[in-house]
Write a structure and sequence with these properties.
alpha+beta, Heat Shock Protein 90, five-stranded antiparallel sheet, globular
Length: about 200
């Protein structure tokens, strides 16, 4: 939970409010004052309520980005990608450029697929974009879920053929699989979960 001062500061910085909240928590734990806090035009208060983990061995993921995009936002992909990049750099300042590049490129492809195929390019169809981070493992998890029915595409067969010959189409899916540490599909590909270890 946070005051509107945090929301205003996130908008002013052009980042996700969840990424800003994470960065503020990390600064608090490290007993340091982040330089961007001086740009706040209003009081900033953040309260974190956390239930105990179901199993003590679980490593907690904190949300960094949670957004909804409609099917006609395909042309905004460069702006969205810049927003994600700023948000992740703020939340995890030691994130290597090469790793950020892989996360952003795979996320871009996954969202473009969701907006084009799952949402059909329609403004009344929505895709949900989520990024979470586990500091203990330094792992990012990206989930892109659209409102479509998914597909019956045989990715394994396509990948097998692509190993030996140049194939047309579905290169974005191949790219995602090779950039992420793991990729899980749910609802026939209408939900894509990518991990970056």
């Amino acid at each position: 939970m946070w005051t509107d001062g945090l929301q205003d500061l996130a908008e002013q910085q052009g980042v996700s409010v969840l990424s800003l909240a994470h960065a503020l928590q990390e600064a608090e734990q490290g007993k340091r004052r982040p330089p961007w806090i001086d740009a706040a035009k209003d009081d900033v208060l953040l309260a974190v309520l956390q239930l105990p983990l179901a199993q003590p061995t679980e490593e907690p993921f904190r949300p960094l980005i949670l957004e909804q995009y409609h099917g006609r936002q395909r042309s905004d992909i460069d702006v969205l990608q810049s927003y994600w990049g700023r948000s992740l750099n703020l939340a995890v300042p030691d994130l290597a450029d090469a790793r950020l590049h892989d996360i952003l490129l795979a996320s871009r492809e996954a969202l473009l697929n969701a907006l084009t195929h799952g949402c059909g390019g329609q403004s009344d169809q929505m895709a949900v974009f989520q990024v979470a981070f586990c500091a203990l493992r330094h792992t990012f998890r990206v989930r892109v879920r659209d409102s479509g029915p998914g597909h019956n595409f045989d990715f394994t067969q396509h990948e097998r053929i692509a190993e030996s010959e140049l194939v047309e189409g579905h290169r974005g899916i191949l790219l995602i699989k090779h950039l992420a540490s793991s990729v899980n599909l749910e609802r026939h590909g209408a939900s894509v979960i990518m991990s970056f270890d």
